[in-house]
Amino acid sequence: MSQHRPHRLSDFVADLSALLDRAGDEAVILREGGALLAELVAQDDWLPEAQSLPDPTRYQQYLLHREPAARFSVVSFVWGPGQATPVHDHTVWGLIGVLRGAELSQAYERTNGALKAVGRVHRLEPGQVEAVSPTVGDIHRVANAFDDRTSISIHVYGADIGTVKRSTYDADGKPKTFISGYADVPPPLLFDRASALAYGAAE
Ligand code: FE
User: Fold this and answer.
1) Any idea what the Cα angle at residue 175 is, between residues 90 and 26, rounded to 5°?
2) From the CA of 3, how far away is ligand 1's center (Å)?
3) Ligand 1 centroid to 85 CA: how many Å?
């Protein structure tokens, strides 16, 4: 890797902050925020090594930035070989951009409680970005496209995502509450007692 350029992340955070200051409309945030994220993940020379390390037992979510007002958070999502999420939702807008390796994504929708795949599994390559939200489609399952190497994607959400109560879904579409937390933030710094009970169930 060439010279390390950590300013790319702080530039992205400043640009996204400015966007949220002027735009409240989700479609605008997803379109313009998606373009900013595409710019960020177009160069793989800024992510600190500590937030790029896979874990052999499960995929990792490292907190890169969280606004004090929790308008948004930025996470590096690090996949070990072959790792995948359960089917899950987000409940807030989210943008996913692949930085390294590749990711496989399958969208789902829930009708009358039943879970149905929407479209095909698609593959995101480095530099590509996709969006999720309750408006544009919020349920998916994501996996590392490789079974022999690490992949990394950068996720941006319209909340402090590690503290958001959301759901995973079993094959029948039955939801189960979970709160993801962050690999590098100890749960006592994130949660009240009740929330801690739902912590770590899945993604
Ligand atoms: Fe997701």
Assistant:
1) 25
2) 31
3) 8
Domains belonging to the chain, first-starting first, are 7-184 (2.60.120.10)
**Gap from CA of 94 to ligand 1 centroid (Å):** 8
Asked if residue 152 lies in contact with residue 76, where contact means CB atoms within 8 angstroms, the answer is yes
CA 44 to CA 114: how far, in whole Å?
A: 39
Ligand 1 centroid to 119 CA: how many Å?
17
Q: What share of the chain is helix, strand, coil (3-state, %, to 5)?
A: 25, 35, 40
Question: Tens of pLDDT along 81-90?
Answer: 999 999 999 9
Count Cβ atoms within 10 A of the Cβ of residue 83 and give its class: 0-12 exposed, 13-18 middle, 19 or more buried.
Answer: buried
- pTM score > 0.85 for this model? yes
Instruction: Give the tokens for residue 3.
Output: 């010279």
| pLDDT, averaged across the chain | 92
Taking the centre of ligand 1 as the mean of its atom positions, its distance from the CA of residue 95, in whole angstroms, is 9
Of the candidates 127, 140, 65, 131, the residue with the CA atom closest to the CA atom of residue 100 = 127
- Burial zone of 3 (CB within 10 Å; 0-12 exposed, 13-18 middle, 19+ buried): exposed
